Amino acid sequence: MRTKDEQKRKALIEATVKLVNEIGFAASSVSKIAKEANVSPSTLYVFFKNKEDLLVSTYVEIKMELSRAMLNDFDDALPIRDILRNVWFSAFKYISNNLEYYQFIEQFANSPYSELVDREALEEHFIPLIEVLHRGIAHKIIKDVDRNLLAAFLFHPLSFLANPRLCHDWQLNAQELETAFDMAWDAIKL
Amino acid sequence: MRTKDEQKRKALIEATVKLVNEIGFAASSVSKIAKEANVSPSTLYVFFKNKEDLLVSTYVEIKMELSRAMLNDFDDALPIRDILRNVWFSAFKYISNNLEYYQFIEQFANSPYSELVDREALEEHFIPLIEVLHRGIAHKIIKDVDRNLLAAFLFHPLSFLANPRLCHDWQLNAQELETAFDMAWDAIKL
Amino acid sequence: MRTKDEQKRKALIEATVKLVNEIGFAASSVSKIAKEANVSPSTLYVFFKNKEDLLVSTYVEIKMELSRAMLNDFDDALPIRDILRNVWFSAFKYISNNLEYYQFIEQFANSPYSELVDREALEEHFIPLIEVLHRGIAHKIIKDVDRNLLAAFLFHPLSFLANPRLCHDWQLNAQELETAFDMAWDAIKL
Amino acid sequence: MRTKDEQKRKALIEATVKLVNEIGFAASSVSKIAKEANVSPSTLYVFFKNKEDLLVSTYVEIKMELSRAMLNDFDDALPIRDILRNVWFSAFKYISNNLEYYQFIEQFANSPYSELVDREALEEHFIPLIEVLHRGIAHKIIKDVDRNLLAAFLFHPLSFLANPRLCHDWQLNAQELETAFDMAWDAIKL
DNA sequence: GATGAATGAGTGTTCATTCAT
DNA sequence: CATGAATGAACACTCATTCAT
């Protein structure tokens, strides 16, 4: 028996991201993805149950990587503003360095495919972050509002600013990035 | 000679929105859309050049309606904060009342189809709003930053909060909506 | 609008019979059938819902033709033996002249596809025949046994004798056919 | 060195019968058969040259078992009618107890696969039976007709009566079985 | 002996679009 | 204007089989 070639799985995920970004879900056929990954279309089915499974797996894998990147240098000992600043900059860095991945998950999240994902399992990874927000509220540093509202101002502007598909012809420089975080902080701080 | 039946065009647009939201671009075939609109697939080609034209036209039509709704009660005489508040609430109202439309344009904007749209033509409608921001900057009421940054904090959180596909299991009530605008204003005000 | 071409439907049915007889259900792919019928595979779906529908429709169509042929010169006024003799010979004639059709329905009836057919609708056509058997029983001409038993000896030997797939290297001649009917009659007569 | 595991061969034959009866030749893929037999698809090729070989072998194996069962208590010393009666009842018993096997060989015999079988080798097993018929003819007990005709009335009705796929919603009871044999005998006796 | 990985060829079906009416 | 018939191209997926282990 041969052993399963993990490189092929990886190549399929990469090819999926590339093609979906370039031509969208609609046009990203199994055979095109397989060709891009240099495997036979039938080989795809050795690694994934079907096309849907491939797409969802790709999404979950990237989302996990993003959450890992964001919480990479998470340090509970720092002041709350610094913790959030670190997460914010880590997120921006990951997105900037992995724009393709990021555009894929944005497109995915806005499509009906998003309903196929086990959201709770993914949210688990953000628990430390959510706890920081709660602490901020308790310490009267952050506004006492629903965490969806906090997330809306803390991270959603970032996702817009970092995504060239939405924010055309404009790139944040280092200083503007700092300004952007200040604005986010102004929005949520008490 | 009958005139092109405008009702059929409308029905096709509606059917497109409905199906794309439910099953995505990939699965929304011309024949399914035609069936949903109660016309023959070939009739679709009387109104639209092809499938792509149908999708782009649908997007543009909704986007125009949205901009009209947002600037509906635009009154240059009001204080800047009030102008923006009105626009903000109008936007929220339109999105809430036309969630299907809104989800469609979000899904569209995050897909490669978005590149087919004449962005500048659409942006024209927002010129009065952009001018208000410039005035705010000139009057030292609003932070002197790129208008993309202002938009990121003024409108993007709203798009997240109003979209149940992104912001699950949570709905803004009237008071939280007010709080949300306050947060947006805190972010952009000097 | 073009009008549906009934010849194409007929060609598809013929092609189905031919191929299924030659290579079996397993190997009779939609594309092979379409090619044999000189239409595009997709055209097949204009006339039939799917492959299963094509196969079942083919079966039902032949079965109807067979029943019509068997009861063609049915004459209730004749003595019972003569009625059955006429049906018997009509059946033999139809089978001999349409061996391909007959082999198809035999193969179909012995496959799991047979469960998809509305048997009762088909049996309706044989009601006059069944009534003759009942009359024969009432008049003490035919054995008083279940009609399945009568059918088993009246028609099933015929289906074996006429089917070269089962009864190899042997063909009934006119005199043997007469003998065969005598044997059937011996089996069922009182 | 392990010896070829005869249990696995048996399991593959059983799985073939089961699946072909349930879903037909067309849908009975090698991998489904292997899964049903709890072996790997490639293991199948240790025991059989290919799929065709598996199907033909299954047929031959069952046909042999059937012939053995029919001639099990064959006793040349008995009167001809009793010999045939014994064979008839043995056949009925085997079919009733092994309906799955029987339906498989009927489906097989009515398919083009049947041409792949060495018929003569199989017929050899029925030689004693054929000789009894010849003796019956010589003794003026049985009609002097081709043996195919005799078989048609002696065994073919049985195959219809015992096969629920053909003879729906009706089961022979012990007495009717006796009647059935009487009818067969009436057909062939002089 | 036995098996899971791997695949080219092929499956049934739907696609976007055109055509004749 | 509006449509159902028709289709080549493509779809997602499974096939029988081989290969390395």
What can you see in these coordinates?
Four copies of one chain form a homotetramer. Chain A has helices spanning 6-27, 30-36, 41-47, 51-70, 80-97, 99-109, 119-123, 127-138, 147-154, 156-161, 174-188. With 190 residues, chain A is mainly alpha-helical. In chain A, helix 2 packs across helix 3 (41-47), helix 4 packs across helix 5 (80-97) and helix 4 (51-70) packs across helix 6. The mean pLDDT of chain A is 92. Chain A binds a DNA duplex (21 and 21 nucleotides) through helix 3.
Q: How much of the sequence of chain A is in beta strands?
A: under 5%
Alpha-carbon distance between the termini of chain A?
Answer: 63 Å
Order of helices and strands of chain A, N to C? HHHHHHHHHHH
Count interface residues per chain for the largest interface: A-B, 44 and 44 residues
Entry keywords:
homotetramer; 190 residues; mainly alpha; 11 helices; DNA-binding
Question: Any chance you could write out the topology, listing elements then pairs?
Answer:
The structure is a homotetramer of 190-residue chains.
Chain A lengths: L5 H22 L2 H7 L4 H7 L3 H20 L9 H18 L1 H11 L9 H5 L3 H12 L8 H8 L1 H6 L12 H15 L2
Helix pairs in contact in A: 1-2, 1-4, 1-6, 2-3, 4-5, 4-6, 5-6
Chain A binds a DNA duplex (21 and 21 nucleotides) through α3.
Q: Concise description?
A:
4 copies of one chain form a homotetramer. By secondary structure, chain A is an all-alpha fold.
